[in-house]
Amino acid sequence: MSEPLTLGVLASGRGSNFQSIIDSIESGALNARIAVLITDNPGAYALERAAKHNIEALIIRPRDFPDKDAYYSHIAGELGKRGVELVILAGFMRVVGKALIEKYPNRIMNIHPALLPSFPGLHGQKQAVDYGVKISGCTVHFVDEGVDTGPVIIQAAVPVYHDDTEETLSERILREEHRIFPEAIRLYAEGRISVEGRKVIIAGRGRD
Ligand code: GRF
Known about the structure:
Layout: E1 5-10, H1 16-26, E2 32-39, H2 46-52, E3 57-59, H3 68-81, E4 86-89, H4 98-103, E5 108-112, H5 124-131, E6 135-142, E7 152-159, H6 166-189, E8 193-196, E9 199-202
Parallel strand pairs: 1-2, 1-4, 2-3, 4-5
Antiparallel strand pairs: 5-6, 6-7, 8-9
The chain binds 5-O-phosphono-beta-D-ribofuranosylamine.
């Protein structure tokens, strides 16, 4: 088997997506290792998950830096030092700065709880419920400088019912998030993902 892909994970909160990646690695489904968890939130539950799985964790807060550039340059440096090849945003609640994106072009993945380009930004699930759509879902995409605008890697759809609340829809979407995020990372680790402009091509998956 080839060398495991080195990941760096950024998370701000509960970290259930972080956990799904840990679980995929531990079960052998994903040939990767997580070199570091970085959080902007000292209260993030993701920190406990990291401790439990012996993953190094760093708390790096924007307020300790003069500006956004300095903050993301520092994060990029910490990731670089650890040989991180792919950066995973697993519920990282900030718009990532240029300094990090330029160091990892098309090498930062995010998961968004809606079918982009519908309902970007915060509360994608609530936006879907309020709009009254019948189908929503989640999207794994590469990160560019916009808000949820980068090239789409994988999407999964779920039904939206008339009596759904933000909570019930979030739960249904989350189950799919936990499936497609590790899957997207696996495709990357297998060298099967390439990007042409806005389009992500997955080798060996239909019509190629
Ligand atoms: C998920 O809904 C994800 O789509 C969004 O933030 C939430 C993070 O949840 N980007 P968790 O921290 O991974 O449990």
